[in-house]
Sequence to fold (357 residues):
Amino acid sequence: MNKDGNSNSPGLKDVFKDDFYIGVALSKDQVCGKERETLYVLKKHFNSVTPENILKWEEVHPKPNEYNFETVDKYVELGEKYNIFTIGHTLVWHLQTPDWVFKDVSGNWVDREGLLKRMKEHIFTVMERYKGKIHGWDVVNEAVDEEGSLRNSKWYEIIGEDYIQKAFEFAREADPDAELYYNDYNFEKPFKCQGIMKLIESLKERGIRIDGVGIQGHWFLEYPRLEEIEAYILALSRIGVKVIVSEMDISVLPIYPVESEAVDISLLIPEFQRVHNPYVDGLPESVEKALADRYVELFSLFHKYRENIKRVTLWAVHDRQTWRNYLPISGRKDYPMLFDRNCKPKLALKSLIEHFK
Fold:
């Protein structure tokens, strides 16, 4: 393969063309053409795209009467240019949503009807603009907490537990032909997984159409266990929704305690820097091989349940782009993607293509 991943070998999307979409998340710079090498990779290997941030509320609707569609228009044009399955991410989330959404002009919290009105106006304005061009939407993102209850967000506090139902109803009305998804993480946590399943089942019992559930898939070399991932793929399939691996990456770094707050690597003593950021000078061959094996292992599982899985989306094109360089410890050097920091294909990509072609 050459530097952009083009060669006589098939692209990743071609290897899985009869199984599921192969997607990738694009940054604002990539959408705007500032990383031309990523466009070659996109064309060769992917048939679905998701925007990292440009469709989140604070980016696209930062003020009450202001929408920023310029970059999103470019994103949608890119999807049309390459004739790929284009995703909208995300309509309702507790993060990256401006404070004004929840407050009146006096700075007081709005009431239920006021917030529902704002939710509906936002969903209709964004979805109708891209009707028929964005094919699937993450309608609600991360609404369940680690204990399996609905997250105590401003959406929940002001509207009540039916805010999720309302969001899906508004989205269905705005674009009846678009696929609508619920998206979340940490399915391997038993209480959270049970809470997500309960939420989806209750919505379906009320007649709310949910086309798929996104498993974010921010995983590690040895965690979670394959059996755990298989269990929640099966659980989602049993309740009648398509499974989407919506934000996949595989960190090669040590797992940082989940109860710890995010820190900068430079603030840790040297001993801890070496432990938590061990690959500053590059990835050892043994770890590169372990990453490739993990990708093959996971995609083998996806292939096994290909009739239930709609899409697998990688949450960055290359290692330089990934959020895992910054969270939960800023300044680390991680290697979770299929392409390296120079957008060159890694052993993991070659292994996937060789294994499944």
About this structure: The chain has a mean pLDDT of 94.
